[in-house]
Write a structure and sequence with these properties.
25 strands; rod-shaped; alpha+beta
């Protein structure tokens, strides 16, 4: 009996098993096969020759990983685009607002101050950073982003240019305006100082004193000249109403004076004459004044009042037998005689042994150069910084601190009335050696440690 032919069945069974691998190969790469019989025809053998190629599993796995990575990267980039798109919409709205503000700034920059410019520049920098970030993230050129970048750059240039305009730098202008406003208020306060009622004593006395007016260092421009004085003639002769005088020394001595035709010549240090005191006529102390074209000063050896007529260069002297050489002011060594002049005439301030250091006021008769009357006060001279006369009233100062002097006491020679007060006097330097009042302009003149200083005086109304 003939065996059934099983070759087609075997071939069919093998083909499905080989199909996954063979599917990756072209048909021409398939091997050839043959059919043989053995065992007397009882067995059929089917031989198939396959190509020498293994299955590329690693390549498939790598491709799958790459595909997954690309998918994730696309998702990330898509999320970035969504995020930047929403963020860009917000910034585009802000950019539109910023464009409007810059346009307003170009047309009306006076409404803006430095703070507005700084805010604009900060916002522009933020926009510029955002556009740069978007461009870097996309890693490609975008006409829209390039246009935005150029627009932001142009706006930055405009803002910087506008900020440099003087009219736009309103912060500085407003500061200067505030200074001018303050000066105006000060001028209004000093209106009574600027237009004093010269020669009028119908007032209640000194009400206040202005801030110090620092003119300059002494005419020698020498900081070592700590002793001296300066001012105007308190009773000028015709033609010398504008004359100023000055003298300064490195010690509390008096040996020369300089005269200047006016204030400008004083500032220029251009004197029209110079008076040097001859030997035997030198002075000590520094509270001297010029009154009626004559210098009144304290002379030594012997101790006396001295007068130098600036017109004739004639000297006059008067010994002060009662005046003490024991008591002086705090800042002024050897200041035993203090000359002063006011609306009532010429005065000298000193103390006596009988008064035990209390200040004595004496009225000088200008013609005879003699004492015509005197008054003893309660002010103790060694505690005083200085003293001066105004309308027959003596005012005494004392130190409050390094930069402040206080007018604390007054004595009225007409009524004998004494008053205590507190009128502050600001000082440029702590020490001063000459302080006197001038009735021709109602000012106080101080020689403040080598500097010319003056004050306007305001009086109380009756």
């Amino acid at each position: 009996m003939k065996q059934p032919d099983t070759m087609p069945l075997a071939a069919l069974l093998l083909v499905p098993l080989l199909s996954p691998a063979l599917a990756w190969l072209p048909m021409e790469d398939w091997g050839s096969g043959n059919m043989t019989t053995s065992g007397g025809g009882l067995e059929c053998v089917c031989s198939v020759f396959l190509p020498d190629t293994t299955f590329p599993a690693e390549r498939v796995q790598h491709m799958q990983q790459v595909t997954t990575g690309l998918k994730r990267e696309v998702e990330v980039q898509m999320s970035k685009l969504v995020h930047y798109n929403s963020k860009l919409e917000v910034y585009l709205e802000d950019l539109l607002d910023l464009t409007i503000r810059v346009a307003m700034l170009e047309t009306s920059s006076d409404d803006y101050i430095k703070l507005d410019f700084e805010l604009l520049k900060t916002e522009l920098r933020e926009f510029e950073a955002l556009v740069s970030q978007l461009r870097d993230s996309l890693n490609t050129s975008s006409p829209v982003l390039d246009s935005l970048y150029i627009e932001i750059h142009n706006m930055t240039v405009i803002v910087n240019q506008l900020e440099t305009f003087d009219k736009s730098n309103l912060e500085v202008i407003r500061i200067e305006f505030a200074k001018l406003q303050w000066k105006l208020e000060e001028c209004q306060k000093d209106l009574d100082f600027i237009k004093p009622d010269i020669g009028n004593c119908n007032h209640t006395g000194i009400l206040t004193v202005s801030k110090p007016i620092l003119i300059q260092m002494n005419a020698h421009l020498n900081p070592g000249y700590l002793y001296g004085g300066w001012g105007k003639d308190s009773k000028p002769v015709r033609g010398y109403e504008s004359m100023y005088w000055y003298g300064a020394y490195s010690s509390p001595s008096v040996y020369e004076f300089y005269l200047y035709s006016d204030y400008d010549k004083l500032i220029e240090r251009s004197s029209f004459t110079h008076h040097g005191l001859p030997q035997g006529y030198e002075g000590i102390g520094n509270n001297y004044i010029v009154h009626g074209n004559a210098v009144y000063y304290q002379a030594a050896n012997p101790f006396r009042m001295s007068k130098l007529n600036l017109t004739s260069s004639v000297y006059s002297h008067r010994q002060m037998t009662k005046a003490s050489e024991k008591y002086t002011y705090i800042y002024s060594p050897n200041q035993f005689l203090d000359f002063s002049a006011d609306e009532k005439g010429l005065w000298v301030i000193y103390t006596t042994e009988e008064a035990k250091g209390k200040i004595v006021i004496a009225k000088i008769d200008e013609k005879s150069f003699a004492i015509e009357d005197e008054w003893t006060t309660s002010a103790f001279k060694p505690q005083a910084g200085n003293a001066f006369m105004v309308c027959g009233v003596m005012y005494t100062t004392r130190s409050r601190d390094m930069n402040t002097e206080e007018i604390y006491y007054s004595y009225n020679t007409k009524t004998g009335e004494e008053k205590h007060m507190s009128i502050l006097l600001q000082k440029f330097q702590e020490k001063f050696v000459n302080l006197h009042y001038n009735p021709t302009d109602q000012r106080l003149y101080m020689y403040n440690n080598g500097y010319f200083v003056s004050y306007n005086v305001k009086f109380g109304k009756e």
